[in-house]
Amino acid sequence: MRKYLPNFFTLLNLTVGSLGAILALKGYVTQGIWCIWWGASLDFFDGWLARTLNAHSPLGQQLDSLADLITFGWLPACIMYELIDQQTTLTYLPYIAILIPICSALRLAQFNIDTRQKDAFIGLPVPANGILISTLPLIIVANKRVWLTAFMSHPYFLVIFVIITSYLLIANIPLMAFKFTSYAWHPNRFRYSFLLTATLLILWLQSEGLALSIVLYILGSVMLSVLQQKQ
Fold first, then answer.
1. Which of 66, 77, 78, 168 could form a disulfide with 100 if both were Cys (CB 3.0 to 4.6 A apart)?
2. Long-range contacts of range 29-36, CB-CB < 8 Å, 24 or more positions apart?
């Protein structure tokens, strides 16, 4: 029975993502965002259960990728479609959001067959991209800077944002993975430093801090990779 428990939570993740996509396309973007965050919690929990119960399986791996494609690929695409559609009269422009699930599917498929990604990720992880997209509507609405709201809600900014983040999913860029083989400080100093910085940013700036944390994760990982290559 216990070997099926992680798969149960994976299917809950997929269910939440599917529900969020329906809500987002009906105009309930905030509820769609909450579904991404609930899905992220379930995605973490099913992985933790699989490791704790030693319940890894090929079926679980495939289910996890399919659930991530819905919750962090298709649902964010629905949110971006709604955001762009609300800001433009060009009927074709919002469909650029389809790039998100396309590149997410490629990223997930590559991850399942790429043996290089045991200690580091190649390309932006799909859940991280989904969470980054989920912060966008919140920053647009909640921030008190008029210029930032106007800039981030402009349809062409949203289109460029979709293109850049979709590219990062499939880019051949090594990014830091949070897989601890030990909890000693020195081999994990960059991970611990990032986690502390991200926590402080989120506590201080909420959704803006979450978005900044993911941007710092990308930039910091690239810098770390460059430093390691020079050693």
1. 77
2. 29/79, 29/82, 29/83, 29/137, 30/137, 30/138, 32/75, 32/78, 32/79, 33/79, 33/134, 33/137, 33/138, 35/71, 35/75, 36/71, 36/72, 36/75, 36/76, 36/79, 36/130, 36/131, 36/133, 36/134
